[in-house]
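Recap from last week: sequence in, structure out.
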Amino acid sequence: MRRAMYLAPVLALGLALAYVAPALHGQDSRAEIQKRLAAEFKRTKMTADRSDIAAAGSVLDLHKDGLVMCSTEAIASPTNTYKNGALSFGFGANMAWGMALAPANQQTTAIPQRKFVTGEKFWVTDYIVKLDGVVFQFYSDPYNDVRYYGQLKFPFTKNVAPPADEVIKAIEEVITAEADTQEAAPAENAAPAAQQAAAQPAAAPKTIALGQTRDQVVEILGQPQKIVNLGAKQMYFYADMKVIFTNGKVTDVQ
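Predicted structure tokens:
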């Protein structure tokens, strides 16, 4: 009897460690996944009304068909799932989305939706490592004056976070971030440039007109700090201006 009394605390400690060890491992894995995501994807910041881009981040290339997004007029976006090599947005996901829209008296059938396919591009605005998986949020450029947004979840089997390499590999099967076409000028060049500018008389205001070509814009404004390539559409980012080209000509200046 006395021996059993001594063994009981030992067995209880063993059981406790059996539960705690996987939890600690999962926590470490989630932290490493978040670190890897931050290194690979730069978040885009939207304006408060979600109608435009306030600060550009990573442009993503889609490698799978069937990513469902909805108009930003919806208070909540649909959540797609990537599993077994395919994207899905099934009955359960649609029902959950409908419940999220209910407080605003919105219905899924009345919200504009669009399925994005392989080769299309959009922005990443957030990514969160949860207990049961990684969730991304995306925003598109306007299509016929409608900007779309949506979520994509990479679930963890049995809610246990796998090694970061496995998660990143699964993510890259669906989306990859494009490298910046051009970075800002090195900081060490800033001082000489500022001194030269100070020595010169004030120049006339620089203006950009619709229909101008990329070469004409560069001749007027100089090289941009950043270029975002969206196929037929390109965005040139300057310190206080964003110039949008479509098929090589200026279509908007912000």
